[in-house]
Amino acid sequence: MVVTTSQIQGFFDILVDNLYAELVVLQWIRENITEWRSHIIVSRDAAGTKRVISIADRLNVEFALIHKERKKANEVDWMVLVGDVKGRVAILVNYMADTCGTVYHVADKLLSAGATKVYEILTHGILFGPTISRINNAVYEAVVVTSTIPQEDKMKLCFKIQVIDISMIPVEAIRRTHNGESASYLFSHVPL
């Protein structure tokens, strides 16, 4: 069942907005990845393509995607890279990761296709089960997650995990809504 915003608004009988982390992801890329203008944004699957295209467009860089078929959850049967990552840093952007069951395979696929480094940026890093050992054993430069879920304990076990603080997004959205200002400004105004 797909629930639309208007259905949610009707259920709660108030206006509802999704808060997106795209602006802080863009800022993190600009501030932490050198020469980001020559790199490529990659989607780990077809479902994330729209999100990756949006970020690539805002950065004015190219994008690629990995198409994969699964035998079952967290187990990839096969995958193919659509796009050219040769000689570039590949920046994977994804909504969430739980066990990182495909993390090792995706990073290897990108490196074998010629990527020089691989980063992964997640909105929600659930990261349970064998995740920490998988990230530690994968060839990622960093796995970057937003602060929607506390990561302090995991960061002690894995130096590759970095956190983007998003605490100001809901605070500013609430302030703008309370003052009758546009909250959409938070998601459309990106200084380059």
UniProtKB/TrEMBL annotation:
Keywords: ATP-binding, Kinase, Magnesium, Metal-binding, Nucleotide biosynthesis, Nucleotide-binding, Transferase. Its EC number is 2.7.6.1. It comes from Chrysochloris asiatica. GO terms for molecular function: ATP binding; kinase activity; magnesium ion binding; ribose phosphate diphosphokinase activity. SUPFAM superfamilies: PRTase-like. One of its GO terms (biological process) is purine nucleotide biosynthetic process. The keyword Kinase applies. GO terms for cellular component: cytoplasm; ribose phosphate diphosphokinase complex. Belongs to the ribose-phosphate pyrophosphokinase family. This is ribose-phosphate diphosphokinase.
